[in-house]
User: Fold this.
Amino acid sequence: MNLEKLIRPSIWKLKPYSCARDEFKGEASVYLDANENPYNSPYNRYPDPLQWILKEKIAKLKNVRPEQIMIGNGSDEPIDLVFRIFCEPKEDNVVAMEPTYGMYQVCAGINNVEYRKVLLNDDFSLDADCLLQATDEHTKLIFLCSPNNPTGNLLNRAEMQKIVENFDGIVIIDEAYIDFSSEKSWLEDLDKYPNIIVLQTFSKAWGLASVRCGLAFASPEIIGFFNKVKYPYNVNLLTQRFVSEQINQVEQKNEWIKTLLKQREYLRKELEKIPWVEKIYPSDANFLLVKVSDANAVYRYLVEKSIIVRNRNSVSLCWNCLRITVGTKEENETLIKVMSDKL
Ligand SMILES: *Cc1c(COP(=O)(O)O)cnc(C)c1O
Assistant:
């Protein structure tokens, strides 16, 4: 892979902003270099722009090297940054499967980059050849999301591998829901494939959506470009410290996953009994995609009963589908009771 051919020329040449925390690293007794207020410690100081303490912990947790990690303000930050690093507006394009996570298309739009959609098969499986055929010499990125949102299914690994091995650009593999799946992560193949970027997040299995902490894993060369383009202090001190602490509670996270998977099967079993539920798709995530006879009517009915699900009726291949997140036992029982009451 020739990274120089893939990176936008202006980004390749960019001399990044050098902040005070970059220029002097190490311990000193008097800091008069960053125009900080000397009072109100520790919040008066700018945080580590590269978040090394947190990266060391994540590296151990995920069995990667700290230089292979970029930490963002949610995974939405690295999704936006890949456009700004790789795609020349109005010139380059990206290819993604459809339906999938909506942020890829939004970020393409914001960056004025053509977004090419390739429909998944009817069972939401991936056809690698169709995606590869949609690429041309201006295609810089392919987005794969596995398990996929909103469909819930894992993509076939051999099909994904075909794309990774045959595409000349960067393949972004979004693993936001990987903790709910029995499939192994692509992180294990990070050293083997210098053209992949794996996205994970603390927002789902770790129960930390509000702290905004997302992860991109890639070769140290690609991570270097993320570091060049991101805001210098993109992850604040509170988030860095809090996520570091939360990583110590890995058993708690694993318990939640076990409970949610059990509850997902409870929901499936109970939903199957409801006559106007037409289909429940297989799920490797913490939600179920459910086809009903009239999604808009069911959605409105549930809102009336103070239960909010996601109406995916207008999404390709998801006609009359609702996306239902797995909640607590009590929440799921409430949902089933309310749904069973609707004729
Ligand atoms: C929820 C989700 C994310 C996570 O986004 P954050 O910005 O990290 O909260 C990423 N990708 C997909 C497919 C998701 O569903």
About this structure: The chain has a mean pLDDT of 97.
